[in-house]
Amino acid sequence: MSGKVYLVGAGPGDPGLLTRKGAAVLAQAQAVVYDFLANPELLALAPPGARVIYVGKKGGDHTLSQEGINDLLCDLAAEGLTVVRLKGGDPFVFGRGGEEMSALHARGLACEVVPGVTSAIAAPAYAGIPVTDRRCTTEVALVTGHEDPGKPASTIKWRALAQIGSVIFLMGVKNLPEICRQLMAHGRAPETPAAAIRWGTLPRQETVSGTLATLPGLVAAAGLKPPAITVVGEVVGLREELAWFDRLPLFGRRVLVTRARQQASRLTSALAELGAEVVEIPTIDLLPPSDPAPLNAAVARAGEYHWILFTSQNGVEAFFASLADQGRDARSLGRAKLGAIGPATTQALRERGLIPELTARDFVAEGLLAALEGENLAGKRVLIPRAQQAREVLPETLRAWGAVVEVVAAYHTAPPAAAGQRLAQALAEGLDALTFTASSTVTNFMALLGPEDRRRLVEENAAGRLLVASIGPITSAAARSQGLTVNLEPAAYTIPDLVEALAAHYAAQ
Questions:
Q1: 325 catalytic per annotation
Q2: CATH superfamily of 121-246
Q3: Predicted pLDDT of residue 363
Q4: Annotated catalytic, 21?
């Protein structure tokens, strides 16, 4: 049986602007054919085994011609595959989606269109420019700034466009001087507000504002390159009041997240919501313990302990995964009391219907000890499921208090393969801040760098050009031991507080 092709609009760049239907179709894809302007982050929504094919379409530098793309889509569908053609913006707004659909129709192959958010509307919106506003205009025109070079003459109706309130040109940076000249020659006032927006809706968005007469020079001086769109009309004048995206506290800041992939999304999302361009390169992988037998044995005897102390949400997850593997649930804990090192660990327990008897006020081992200080632990059995490598202050102090302490490795961490090359590339491209959420992320990060990159990083940090943000004192101590200056450490050692500290730092500048 023949397959089916979905022409999916990937949206303008911000992956959050993909439609729900677009995400659902991607989740079923057996093959994904994507363009330069489709955010690569969206590829993660496809199943792991899907074929992923890049076809370029970058400003005249095409990996595959349009005819080649048409043939590719037809051939994949003829193999019986479910194919997603992931196109920047909307497939039918200067996206040549109609040509691709016609090619499929000619071969008798099924095709469906999933509309996307076009950059013609979204990029101005992120720049604080409504394309229509009844105070300025109630009409808008979308125009290609790069006509088919095979046409004998331009078919753009310049005289008509000069009379329309808002005119948006897509793909017009190269032809911007001619576009502005034509509009003025056909009656548009030279002082008409105009703006060019590059990488709209992404944290690297750049906006250059001026007038129809001055914009070409301003764009050239700023070095603005494609992909960009141009907006002409009185609505551009509203940007000064309505700009919101580039006023976010972390807008334009490139921030490195080093958390394990399983945990990074929370920090990444919080930073992105404040405008940061997040570079996510985990420096640790969370792995099962080298020998799972001690953890499994301790979990099997869970009801025999007086206290079970969790020092991370990873420990909670590993403990309850072992419990589930044994066909048991929280009832097996009996009368064991639970302690948690901080709010994230407490939340991990609450998600399993459990409320710990105590949570540390300071989210380190010493804080947990302070919370336990009033307890009579002499002769009490205490279980600590934790990382394979961890500080000994907690079990040693509890033993000094007379407790019978059993420490079991619930998981261990290791540097992920190939992370070193990605880190070196990220540093070469430029970063504003590094975030560290555990001492292991620091030590692994530095170990993954070559000597020259380490030296340059320490120098950049010491000179104040590269900020180091640490979640708490133990992580900060690890950073300082590696020669780094810690610029930020929140009062409370949590992800939200770390993000808030970063935002406050940059907002004050």
A1: no
A2: Tetrapyrrole methylase, C-terminal domain (3.30.950.10)
A3: 73
A4: no
